[in-house]
Amino acid sequence: MAVGLGAMPVMHPVKGFELGIASAGIKKVGRRDLVLMRCAEGSQVAGVFTQNAFCAAPVQLCKQRLGQPVRFLVTNTGNANAATGQPGLVAAQQVCQAVADSFQVSVEQVLPFSTGVIGEPLPVDKITAALPAAMADLREDNWNLAGEGIMTTDTLPKGASVQFAHDGETFTVTGISKGAGMIRPNMATMLGYVATDACVAGPLLQALVKEAADLSFNRITIDGDTSTNDSFMLIATGQTGPAIDQAEGELYQKLRDAVCAVAMQLAQAIVRDGEGATKFVTVQVEQGGNVQECLDVAYAVAHSPLIKTALFASDPNWGRIVAAVGYAGVPALEQEKVNVFLNDVCIVRDGGRAASYTEEQGAAVMQQEEILIRIELGRGECSETIWTTDLSHEYVRINAEYRT
Amino acid sequence: MAVGLGAMPVMHPVKGFELGIASAGIKKVGRRDLVLMRCAEGSQVAGVFTQNAFCAAPVQLCKQRLGQPVRFLVTNTGNANAATGQPGLVAAQQVCQAVADSFQVSVEQVLPFSTGVIGEPLPVDKITAALPAAMADLREDNWNLAGEGIMTTDTLPKGASVQFAHDGETFTVTGISKGAGMIRPNMATMLGYVATDACVAGPLLQALVKEAADLSFNRITIDGDTSTNDSFMLIATGQTGPAIDQAEGELYQKLRDAVCAVAMQLAQAIVRDGEGATKFVTVQVEQGGNVQECLDVAYAVAHSPLIKTALFASDPNWGRIVAAVGYAGVPALEQEKVNVFLNDVCIVRDGGRAASYTEEQGAAVMQQEEILIRIELGRGECSETIWTTDLSHEYVRINAEYRT
């Protein structure tokens, strides 16, 4: 039921970054559920992670290791290795050790990632048994299968790839992401991996991954649930072009734009493939007094089950939108200054139904698959945009049956 | 699909408080949708109202009038008269004026209440045309039909009634409530009316309605949406016993307990009749550092669509519970101190799956209609309890089809 999400685009290989895929049989036999990534020596790896206090064992290890030289990233689906306590940390470490032993690197050079059911022991034996197949499969042109290999309830793999030229050289930024439910980012989200062959200094790369996440993964929500395993990684293999260590200059601007564009496409792909999604909804809040109140209003609208079911039903029940604006907690909000638009149709003017509005206009917008809800608060100059989905029968079915 | 909610109990009449019901045909022809209440001269009326910035026209009028002598409360369903701007205020005033004219009281002595669709003009003519029938119907023993008369998507009317004796006299506390969706109280909720024949000073009655709301209506959530029209009213007709003007003494304690018990039953009845509800869920958070963090955790659990769909599926997917605990925003929460129980079954001990836990134990609890989720945070001595429901296909159906 993905909304406007087709096959993966052309995925340009990134020099110095290889991917290998295998089937470990973690949750389902024969499914691709193990992805190994290898970065060339000298690569820089940056990342942002979930703010959930119950962050998973692999996230805890990643946080410890970031900043050191990283050579491998190993991802399994089917099991989140979250809420697994000390045994979970040991299990993640065992997987990393198996990779380290095979390639004669130190265990600290391997980052682990897991996604799937929370609270069950990680089947380390199955993963280590399948690792040799993933190792043998390592190739630079393996992005498409890797996109499949990190899927859980996703219905389609998600990828984005951009190239740009600078000083006669071609630079590549390519990435994949996964996620369809338990999506309400908080600093970083789900699993996302973006690699570039540019040569970027570690601290600058870390600043860039944070900036890109804030513009993309941190502006989407499906169900308001923040995962225990969210991770967004940015890898620079340093195979192309001069070293970049300042956030300035034309090359850095081009790279920044490319990374942000790829991150935005990957984030929006997650919303388009939201569990049970039949609509892709942009919520844009304008004329706010500050960023936070714009986001508060946008998320109140995006999380309201009443608005989400009305979107599913294609019902322009705008009363539910103003109710959500009203309870978003904006201090001293004046309802008579609020305007609301569905695409180009003004439905609420000065806090009440717009004189020009007809149900037919609203219904025509709501029939569409892609809908913009635009809210003017009449308080200031700030604006923020987030993306979300509707709430359908299918969401309930998927999540009621998830473990069966 | 109401959970454990049967027919209304015996509704003891309250001396000096009459109710009249009529059909105004606001949304559906022939449905009881208009309720008039008359309090004896000298009655005290207190209330708490929604915190929604888009609070409805009748709520705005009620807030202005509270504290003055009140003789009538007039409630319509089928139309919320919310987000209706200045015309909405005029419409509510017209309804009050019609009541005032008939009984030769001032318009300020009439409180208006509305519930139903947001943003449509109130059909004043239909209401005033039906008022004479409601007036002719005024009787002290009319609580049951009044309970029906304030229903919207409720499947059953909701009532509670308690009597207690003091100094040879019998005191009565009787109330009704409505609400099934758009339920996330914020200071007060939905429509609730509780009357007593005791004689209570105005300021004390206002303190009591606030206390009762905080223990009952402000501890429930169905979908996290705060209505524009929430109102909870407490009326003391002063027909029985001595005047009470201090929050002390045996009579006040008995009255307080009776009012809180009735409010609690009415609030829980709303949850039991939650839209599409198949479970009645108590979320109890213990060992918190303060009230707010207990409530933050409780509401994170109660609002998680993933937990709600797992409850619907009777799936003991406790990983979703710890994930919600983790993102509730409790500062410096230590996951290894967290324990979680389903009824008496310990599912999480020290942040991981309890060694004694089996899926069969969890599944056995989840099969029940009434479930207690108890969470120990290991941080302090505070505890808080709230009540909620699951998220079912039926919730989506009801709210997708609400206006059709």
Automatic annotation (TrEMBL), chains A, B:
Compartment(s) where it occurs, according to its Swiss-Prot or TrEMBL record: Cytoplasm
Active site per database record: T189 (nucleophile)
EC id: 2.3.1.35, 2.3.1.1
Pathway this chain belongs to: Amino-acid biosynthesis; L-arginine biosynthesis; L-ornithine and N-acetyl-L-glutamate from L-glutamate and N(2)-acetyl-L-ornithine (cyclic): step 1/1; Amino-acid biosynthesis; L-arginine biosynthesis; N(2)-acetyl-L-ornithine from L-glutamate: step 1/4
Domain of life, source organism: Bacteria
Family annotation (InterPro entries): Arg_biosynth_ArgJ (IPR002813), ArgJ-like_dom_sf (IPR016117), ArgJ_beta_C (IPR042195)
Keyword Transmembrane helix: no
Sequence positions that bind substrate: T152, K178, T189, E275, N399, T404
Site note Involved in the stabilization of negative charge on the oxyanion by the formation of the oxyanion hole, residues: T115, G116
Principal EC category: transferase
HAMAP family: ArgJ
Family as reported in the entry's similarity comment: Belongs to the ArgJ family.
Function, as annotated: Catalyzes two activities which are involved in the cyclic version of arginine biosynthesis: the synthesis of N-acetylglutamate from glutamate and acetyl-CoA as the acetyl donor, and of ornithine by transacetylation between N(2)-acetylornithine and glutamate.
Protein name: Arginine biosynthesis bifunctional protein ArgJ
Gene that specifies this protein: argJ
